[in-house]
Fold each of these.
Amino acid sequence: MIEAIHIIVHGRVQGVWFRAGTKERADELGLFGWVKNKSEGTVEIHAEGEKLQLENFILWCRKGTPAANVTSLNLNLTSLQNFTSFEIRS
């Protein structure tokens, strides 16, 4: 069953290749959606896919790229938007 999740990533997550790493991991897991930087310094993610892949993705988001320092995640189930790829938004 396909699910969708909205994630806000807090910590040192901008300027550390977090968006590129997020896209790479999402592509590896076969997830669809988007990632973008927010003006207050967080990263926002919308991801859609199978529950197990989303769980693995969330585990990756808790750590992020080697230069990142993730302090917390806000996770919320959300409605499907039926994306066909995973993109980096500006």
Amino acid sequence: MSKGNTFENDLLKLIFNATAIANIADNAASSPLTNLFVSLHTADPGEGGDQTTNEISYTGYARITIARTSGGWTVTNNSVSPAANIDFGQMTAGAGGTVTHFCVGTATSGSGKILYSGTVTPNIVVSNGVIPRLTTASTVTED
């Protein structure tokens, strides 16, 4: 069973922009998340994984905090993308690796819940001096 296009956009706006869906859902929890956290992964974390599953590790890396607002995320045509490029910390030491996936989750560190994940194309080879970047063309589609 699929969702209607209007509801798909509404759902993405609820999650990424904290915009209520009239008569269905709101953001009135006592302490709702005001930010989401983007992580990089060297393999697909899978539907059963968390934000630490296959997460890249190097000196200089940290998850990036993005506000749950229209200033942080752009929702249109059943897809969402960052409103601005997401630049991760420059690799200064460590093993690095090849980034193949990214996740949007609930925690700044540790085993946060994955809300959405997707592939990074082209992959990003991370070595000393590299600053990994997800562009505004990085999208998650609800269908």
Amino acid sequence: MPRICVAVKAVTVDQTIESIVRSELADLIEIRLDYRREPLNLNAIRVSTSKPLIATNRRKDQGGRAEEPESDRVQLLRDAVETGFEYVDLASNTEGLEKIVSELQKRRAKVIVSYHDFEHPLDIHQLESRHSELTKTGCDIIKIIGWTDCYDDNLPYLEYNKRHPGNVSFGMGEKGTTSRILAPLSGAAYTYASLESGLELAPGQTPLKALWETYRRITL
């Protein structure tokens, strides 16, 4: 089965754990720490599931909600690793990115470095250029996400996954659902789903159960 990561808003501890429990069909779970409205007990969140967890604390300029100082934003990700989160997702414009990647890897975390363009479709030349740039960070997984204005805009993302298997690329927006679904079938490490309809954290996400059923039928 293609791997699915469900993206969960971490608003409160109780709500986060409840969402994790409802994510049994997912292969891994992204915990969006930038949505928090209270201090989060990261250890309680970690022990609530045996599934791999991705800690993400996204800045506003990368589609997130985090408004704290950069040092505090990154420290929360360090704290997540210390409690056993297996992955950390760092935006490509994180200050001191290469140093932080190395530091987190020494703490035995796998690091995803992500780039998002919320306005423009990316062609294969732009994707390759961005890939070369992000490779220099030494991260474990490169994630490059662009926009889609039409269905043809999905093709470069799928071509990227074919060329660079084990990384992640797809298009956002209503027209990007196609590349979201096909991403792991074209070589991506995984794709993202929402917990259910109405809980999407990015435009074009498919609900977890619907995506799982789609893959089940394809792989029968």
